[in-house]
Design a protein that fits this description.
Structural class: alpha/beta
Order of helices and strands: HEHEHEHEEHHHH
Strand content: 5-15%
Largest sheet: 3 strands, parallel
Strand order of the largest sheet: 3-4-5
Oligomer: single chain
Length: about 190
């Protein structure tokens, strides 16, 4: 509604240059045009590389949206995990890269299907209508990071993966190539 739009303050943070993961200047101009057509306050901040300033953005936000449309090739981005660490609920697409931190059942995020426009708008509306849940979602956000993304936990996962690789290679500790390029070129994987 017009009233709910007037109370919104959206900050678009991130690079615009495609070489930095942005959509390009034309895409930014399109977004700016769309923003002018709403009653919401929309600031285009650009990239933030200063850790303290970025932490302040996460702490200020009531909801963190990461509207990625990269259906292939994107690993789990760090930014949503940083937002969770600051207790900020997420608005994410249902892309595979987010599967580790989000699903339809999570208590700290709003998920929309891969349709980048219509379903995202519905998820934003649901998030706004669910503002009373945000404090509980904030607590759950922090718990998820503390449980799954500490340095100790990530280290344990690396060790587990390395041990699995060693077992898969007969305990030799040498990981061979995939069997295509290395062997076809006459290399055995041992150097």
């Amino acid at each position: 509604s017009a009233e709910s739009q007037e109370s919104l303050h959206l900050r678009v943070v991130g690079p615009s240059a495609p070489s930095q993961g942005g959509g390009g200047e034309q895409f930014v101009r399109e977004l700016q045009g769309l923003a002018k057509a709403t009653r919401a306050r929309v600031d285009f901040v650009g990239p933030i590389y200063d850790a303290q300033r970025l932490a302040a953005e996460y702490a200020w936000a009531d909801l963190f949206a990461y509207p990625s449309m990269a259906a292939k090739g994107e690993a789990l981005p760090v930014a949503p995990i940083e937002a969770l660490a600051h207790g900020t609920p997420l608005l994410l697409s249902s892309l595979d890269c987010f599967a580790e931190i989000s699903s339809a059942e999570t208590a700290f995020s709003f998920i929309y299907s891969k349709d980048p426009v219509g379903n995202c708008a519905q998820a934003v509306q649901l998030a706004l209508e669910s503002a009373a849940r945000w404090p509980a979602m904030s607590s759950e956000s922090r718990r998820v990071v503390e449980q799954n993304f500490t340095l100790e936990r990530i280290g344990q996962l690396f060790v587990r993966d390395f041990e699995g690789l060693i077992r898969a290679n007969g305990g030799s500790g040498v990981v061979h190539g995939d069997g295509d390029g290395d062997r076809a070129a006459g290399r055995s994987g041992h150097r």
